[in-house]
Design goal:
Helix content: 40-55%
Number of strands: 6
Radius of gyration: 17 Å
Strand content: 5-15%
Length: about 200
């Protein structure tokens, strides 16, 4: 079992049960959209953001992104790690039919994919020194490689997100945040050269 010092925020109790079998960490549950009406739970999430940092690990569907964006806006202080699970289609074992979008939630994702998602976000890595600002990938860098501001940019982003096992629903800003946890600027450009 892998110890994670940050608190992990998930949508439901089955997500928590799944993660509890993989990692040793504080796991907080939003109970889906109930987080909108639960100021005590939101205060607890904010507390962990200020003290240990929080990992937002919601599902890759529309509801998961809505909850993620709400929390991202509600947490004003502290550290927030964005962990994105890939778009995996199927049905959780406990459910009779798949979700509306047909995607598996955190509870249905294989252990290896969850650990890879945590690693991509820099959560499982040893404490690394902060990146030099010159090593940060910028919006302009996305533009120069055709991932933003061009006629086929959205198709190119989706192809990259699929290649990196990231959900298709990510915004350009979210993609930029994730890329900065995965690559230095030089490594990003090298990776993009290999893809073209």
């Amino acid at each position: 079992m892998i110890h994670i010092k940050q608190a992990i925020v998930v949508e439901g109790k089955y997500d928590k049960i799944k993660l509890s079998s993989i990692v040793d960490a504080v796991i907080l549950v939003t109970n889906g959209f109930q987080i909108y009406k639960n100021p005590e739970q939101l205060d607890l999430i904010r507390y962990y953001a200020r003290t240990t940092g929080v990992i937002l690990m919601t599902d890759a569907d529309r509801a998961g992104f809505q909850i993620r964006n709400y929390l991202k806006g509600a947490i004003q202080q502290g550290t927030v790690y964005q962990v994105y699970t890939p778009d995996v289609y199927g049905k959780e074992h406990r459910k009779e039919k798949p979700s509306a979008e047909g995607k598996l939630g955190v509870e249905g994702i294989r252990k290896e994919l969850l650990l890879a998602a945590l690693e991509r976000a820099g959560v499982l890595a040893e404490e690394a020194a902060p990146k030099n600002p010159e090593e940060q990938i910028t919006a302009y860098d996305l533009y120069t490689v055709g991932l933003n501001g061009q006629a086929d940019s959205s198709d190119r982003r989706r192809a990259l997100q699929k290649q990196l096992s990231l959900p298709a629903r990510m915004s350009t800003t979210s993609l930029l945040e994730v890329l900065n946890t995965m690559y230095t600027k030089d490594a990003f450009f090298q990776m993009m050269e290999q893809l073209t």
